[in-house]
Fold Hydroxyacylglutathione hydrolase.
Amino acid sequence: MELIRISALLDNYIWLLCDEDKRCVIIDPAESQPVIDILAANQLIPVAIFLTHHHHDHVGGVPGLLIKHPELPVYGPEETRRKGATQIVHEHETIEIAHFSFRVMELPGHTLGHIAFYQAPHLFCGDTLFSGGCGRLFEGTAEQMFSSLGKISSLPDDTLICCAHEYTAANMAFAKAVLPDNQTIHNYYQKIIERRENRQATVPTTLQTEKKINVFLNCHNIDLQKNIGIKPNSISLSSVFQQLRAYKDQF
Ligand SMILES: [Zn+2]
């Protein structure tokens, strides 16, 4: 199976997962043209479009792709029905298509209907988990997002986090501010800065790495709690998450 990452708009990534027969699914097409170009250049046969949530920078390419490939099924949550989804999917449902078998995970927080598509080891998680960060709470509560991140954390450590944005450098600058004495975070920040200076992508990343460097997966960390002004273990972890997310919004 081959994973292809396509840059789109300012900092979006569109993902393609291809099987050995060159059939592929297209995840969160922000735009159509860069996808059409890659399909042609690699002689790939698209078999489906997957949408994680309804935001424009995840669905904007659907009409253009359907002009070229009108037969393509579009899978997504209810909130994407008006954005072109033809197959509405829910928690635990399995999408069997070509050689793929994707499991749907409902991950509310960034939007209320946000979902992810999981085909081990690939997790297409849209704007829920980013490398070093997580999505903003536009519709859901902190508790919902905290629980969604917990669901992702329960996947195997070798899970490849295929998120929809290149936000890692800014996220690691925030992580460094929250845990200034953490050497692992410091080293990862340096590595990311170097990669970005060389115009290299920083994703996909693994869940194992994220557990070490992503502050939003480390709300239990006592130093983190102290550094954002919380008396250690005095409030629930979802409340720690809420304060951390609010702090990042101001950062
Ligand atoms: Zn979004």
